[in-house]
Amino acid sequence: MIETDRLILRGWADADRAPFHAMCSDPRVMAYIGPVQSRAESDAGIDRQIGLLASHGHCFWAIERREDGRFLGFCGLKPGAAGTPIEGEIEIGWRLAVDHWGQGYAAEAARASLAWGWQHLDMPGVAAITAEENVRSWSLMERLGMQRALHADFDHPAAIPALRRHRTYRILRP
Question: What pLDDT does 162 receive?
């Protein structure tokens, strides 16, 4: 578990399944990720993160607001996706429900995830990818001090055609 002033990043619980599905079935949240997800698809996403946590000790953790325990989304570190330029690296990622955008939660969670990674993982750096059109996401990457790796921009093999072009960002261990 990782704690910040306002957030708790933690492993996933069954109680997260309904709010996670609500988030993943919101077209605004999924606009740069792909089509909205069915309950089975969002549950499978949680199950993948639970598996990553069990096998690697880290994942895209569930984000809970400290003041009221509300599920906000996810943020954390996981192995980079196969078939992408970050395969074999550690990837940072986040996704929040629309009600929680613009309040600094993603930046707070991402900074805490990076700090945890630098402290607990033997890694030279962290990478991130996002659809070219996802300005909010790649702007946060830049605010975190990540640098765009132009040579590593790519067409994501799992993305829908309209979102295929992806940017790659990296940050080295301080």
Answer: 86
